[in-house]
Amino acid sequence: MNIGQASKASGVSAKMIRYYEQTGLIPAADRKPSGYRDYSDTDAYMLRFIRRARDLGFSIAEISDLLGLWRDETRQSAEVKRMAQVHIEGLEKKIKGLQDMARTLTVLVNACHGDDRPHCPILQSLETDAKDEDRTIKPRRGAVARLVQ
């Protein structure tokens, strides 16, 4: 099958298939006499494996390791399980980080009046590295004071 057919069969774009070949994640496809790539059903199956691993958030390096284990008939499932557990720990750490960001933004949004005044605790927070700073509205640092006439 050509690259378009392999793409359709696997759910991996032709561009990504070429990238995976360039990086060595998958072996280079055989070539037809015309020079076009010629993929086998096994190649499409391997590309589906890669797509599913990417959908689960595995990195290219991790997928390379998983492919190595998949091809190794003498592997022990304990190694695959260990890799998956390490990946879960990384995902949970990312989730916690995203939840922390959402909580911080929620506090900032709740502190912002969202009116026509220029003072904004969201922008004030972005100006500083302080994590527990006062979120009350105050004049922006470095702002030029307006003269009241």
UniProtKB/TrEMBL annotation:
InterPro entries: CueR, DNA-bd_dom_put_sf, MerR-type_HTH_dom, MerR_fam, Tscrpt_reg_MerR_DNA-bd. Residues 81-108 form a coiled coil. PANTHER family: HEAVY METAL-DEPENDENT TRANSCRIPTIONAL REGULATOR HI_0293-RELATED, REDOX-CYCLING DRUG-SENSING TRANSCRIPTIONAL ACTIVATOR SOXR. The gene is cueR. One of its GO terms (molecular function) is copper ion binding. GO terms for biological process: positive regulation of DNA-templated transcription. It is found in: Cytoplasm. Pfam families: MerR (PF00376), MerR-DNA-bind (PF09278). GO terms for cellular component: cytoplasm. This is Cu(I)-responsive transcriptional regulator. Residues 1-69 form the HTH merR-type domain. Keywords: Coiled coil, Cytoplasm, DNA-binding, Transcription, Transcription regulation.
